[in-house]
Each structure stands twice: as structure tokens, then as C-alpha cells.
Amino acid sequence: MRRLFAIDPELGNEDCPVIIVGTNRMALLTYTALLQEGISVEAFCDLSGKNLGLEIMGKPVIDSGSVKQYGNAHLVYAGEDLQHAEKDLVLFEGMPVWIDRHAYGIVNDCVWSFM
């Protein structure tokens, strides 16, 4: 996994679609951050299967098996928490994956500030 502290120039390459792995609040935060950097997201991947067939922000929600239909896609992990990342991402072995550790810190700080 690559740490994503700043937008990596490899992300957003026209030949490599970006797919966000996750459909939760982190996925929406990640989507917004990528959009602000001019990187378009092709789809969201739902590992739980609860949201398959729906759309998030106008993008399709797909399962892990459908990711390969997007060719040499780049994945940005936005799962519930980083402790599950390794287990979740074994499905995508060999594919480039980014993870925004900084965003997790921001979300956790915001949650704790309201408690």
C-alpha cells in the first residue's frame, strides 16, 4: 500500500481509472478530496455487498469481482478503519492501492471533538 499524504501524480492518469474501495463516510471524504484535486473517480467498490447496484455521487457501486472490468485501475482504500485494510485488500493483490492515513486522523479527531 502506498501512503497518500499528497496527491500522487500516478493517480488520475487517464489510462488508469480510480476506484474507491469503501462506501462509508471515509469514502465520501476521499471522493471529495480527489475531486478537489481534479481526479475523477469511476466507481466505488463495496466489500460488504450491502450497497451493490446503487450509486454514490452518481458513480456505480460495484463488487470486488467487477473491479477487473475497469482494466488497470488504481484503488484508493477508504474502509471503516485501517486495522481491516490488509485483510480487505488481499482481494486486489497486484493492483496499485493508495491509502490516505492523514484523512483517517482528521476523521477521528473530528469524531472525538464532539464527544
The shape is globular
SS content category:
alpha/beta
How many structural domains?
1
Strand adjacency order, main sheet:
1-7-6-2-3-5-4
CATH superfamily: NAD(P)-binding Rossmann-like Domain
- Give the strand tally: 7
Q: Give the integer mean of the pLDDT values.
A: 77
Stretches where pLDDT is under 50 for at least 5 consecutive residues are 1-6, 107-115
CATH topological fold name: Rossmann fold
Q: Fraction of residues in helices?
A: 25-40%
Which percent range describes the beta-strand content?
Answer: 15-25%
Order of helices and strands: EEHEEEEHEH
Q: What is the CATH C-level name?
A: Alpha Beta
How is this structure best described in words?
The longest helix has 13 residues, at 101-113. The chain contains three helices and seven strands, in the order ββαββββαβα. The protein starts with a strand and ends with a helix. Helix 1 links the parallel strand 2 (18-21) and strand 3. The chain has one domain (2-6, 13-113): NAD(P)-binding Rossmann-like Domain (Rossmann fold, 3-Layer(aba) Sandwich), CATH 3.40.50. With 115 residues, the protein is an alpha/beta fold.
